Amino acid sequence: MPIKGQMDARLSEPLPVEQVPKLDISYITPNCSQAVVNLQMDYLMNKKSILTRWLFGSQFTLSLITAWIGTVIYWGVGDYFSSYTFKNGALDGLKQLFGNSFFRAGLIEVTGLIALGFAVVWTVLFETTAWLKDQCMKVPDEQKELFGLDMSEYASLTGKKKFSAEEKKQIEFMKKNSVHIVYRETPIAFIVKQIVVDTEESIEYKVTALGIRRVYVSAGVLEDLLTYLIRDLHEVNGRNAKCSLDLYNFETFDQDIAKSLGFKLEKEVKTNQNWLLRNIFRVTLRTYSYEVTQE
């Protein structure tokens, strides 16, 4: 049920041109809670689309499609392509071929089989990436793991003037561990980190939630989010600070940005989602980390 006062992410429509083109960078405020959850879900679905295209353009898939096209053409109309057919030149040979009703019928059949092959491959790849859709659908049920708190509860703080001790903790958590970007009064990106190790010598964070409006993925927004995250690490006093970020190997653009900012590859593991991804396409999950050490 929508909570009054929540900012709309407007994921299915363009940004409002009537709004002032102003960029606001802050922490995730209560009135943006639902928009952030929706951004996270949309970002995962966009990742699914990227993976599907990446798989379709892989060497394995292209080789399979090429072999299928060659086989279908050879068995369907291959016999028509002989030196005798083209004895008077290519143009005359093509005229003879297309004037032959049997060749035209065979060509239609070949075209249909090629289209069927494309459809089968695309369907298999689409289903192979279905686990990302499953992750997307789980977001509302895994809010504490992703965002560090229940975003529905956090959203209920919208418009409040006085807060309980627990509510103040939630706001303070977001101030310390989130970055949120709003453009034209519309949330377009966010990032959330959470503490995984906290000792006297060091503190380690992990990025647990990240979402960027699709049209801004390649517009440098991720760089802005990570820059603010790095700034926070440099503000830690008296102990080492580190933050890790998980990216799949098909997220090449995101990896390039992370590496350009100083993130280093820490480890890489094969995905355990399914056999095809793990053994044929070799999809891996890479952990990048940025570390600030005290002298």
- CATH classification class of the largest domain: Alpha Beta
Secondary structure category: alpha+beta
CATH topology call of the largest domain: Aminopeptidase
Annotated CATH homologous superfamily of the largest domain? Gcn5-related N-acetyltransferase (GNAT)
What percent of the residues sit in helical stretches (DSSP H or I)? 40-55%
Question: What percent of residues are in strands?
Answer: 15-25%
- Average residue pLDDT: 89
How can the largest sheet be summarized?
7 strands, mixed
Tell me the Rg in angstroms. 26 Å
Global outline: elongated
CATH architecture of the largest domain: 3-Layer(aba) Sandwich
Oligomeric state of the chains present here: single chain
Give the strand order of the largest sheet, numbering strands 1, 2, ... along the chain: 1-2-3-4-5-7-6
Q: Give the uncertain stretches in residue-range form.
A: none
Keywords: Membrane, Transmembrane, Transmembrane helix
InterPro entries: Pho86
Organism: Brettanomyces naardenensis (Yeast)
Protein name: DEKNAAC101697
Describe this structure in words.
With 295 residues, the protein is an alpha+beta fold. 48% of the residues lie in helices and 20% in strands. It has 11 helices and 7 strands. α1 crosses α4. It is elongated, with a radius of gyration of 26 Å. The two termini are 51 Å apart.
